[in-house]
Design goal:
By secondary structure, this protein is of the alpha+beta class. The chain has 3 helices and 5 strands. Helix 2 runs parallel beside helix 3. The longest helix is centred in the middle third of the chain and has 23 residues.
């Protein structure tokens, strides 16, 4: 849960030693964010580390659930960057409404919710109650560029 002594989302990010990364260019013919009324629909983001490298591999074979949790946290940070770019201030986030988390997993992998908690935990830590959301976590046979995790979001915003 977000610390009440750290008054802004940006304070909480700094306290955790995190910085918002640059938003990467889309890898296809789409935009990272579409606004409809007070809802933002964020396109799926993948795990990109501080060096700009994609985290790749098959969860349950090449990548452990713990590593994939950290990859999902990176995706959450990338989603926060998209939100910051779109809104100019993360304080305008009223609520994370819904996440869809997809894991590039082996057929026998069963820890999908644990992996996507990397993003969910980050959102609650940084956004407080506004970060609590509904969510789906599913395994898929493959993801673009062999990334481990892709997460998309629906976000309610303040005007």
């Amino acid at each position: 849960m977000a610390s009440p002594l750290l008054t802004t989302c940006y304070d909480r990010l700094r306290h955790r030693g995190l910085a918002l990364p640059q938003v990467p260019a889309p890898i296809g013919n789409f935009t990272h964010c579409v606004r409809e009324g007070n809802l933002l629909f964020l396109s799926g983001q993948g795990p990109v580390n501080e060096k700009g490298e994609l985290m790749t591999g098959k969860v349950g074979a090449d990548v452990s659930a713990d590593e994939a949790y950290r990859h999902a946290e990176l995706v959450g940070l990338n989603l926060l960057s998209v939100l910051h770019q779109e809104l100019g201030d993360l304080g305008r986030v009223r609520r994370i409404v819904k996440l869809l988390g997809m894991i590039n997993a082996t057929p026998d992998f069963e820890e999908h919710p644990r992996v996507i908690n990397g993003c969910s935990d980050l959102f609650v830590d940084i956004l407080g109650d506004a970060g609590r959301h509904s969510r789906s976590a599913v395994g898929v046979g493959s993801l673009p560029r062999n990334i481990t995790v892709e997460i998309e979001a629906v976000v309610a915003v303040r005007d």
